[in-house]
Amino acid sequence: xxxxxxxxxxxxxxxxxxxxxxxxxxxxxxxxxxxxxxxxxxxxxxxxxxxxxxxxxxxxxxxxxxxxxxxxxxxxxxxxxxxxxxxxxxxxxxxxx
Length: 97
Fold this sequence. Notes:
Helix content is 75%, strand content 0%. The chain has three helices and no strands. The two termini are 31 Å apart.
């Protein structure tokens, strides 16, 4: 879950950097703040994908007795995938506005 918080934080930072350019008067063009913001959002999406891979590798090393009964093993991977998809949507939104 720490990876999910980090990816969401990177995406939020990218959105903030992009939108803060409007406050300082850069305008709504594709200036430096836009590209830096898109870079942070993209980095968040890539980190989300990496977190899924890392989680799958870690779970593969566990034996069945080591997994608590009723534990949703793949919930974290699904959440990371959803955050990655939302990050892609955020990047498209930023590019269109």
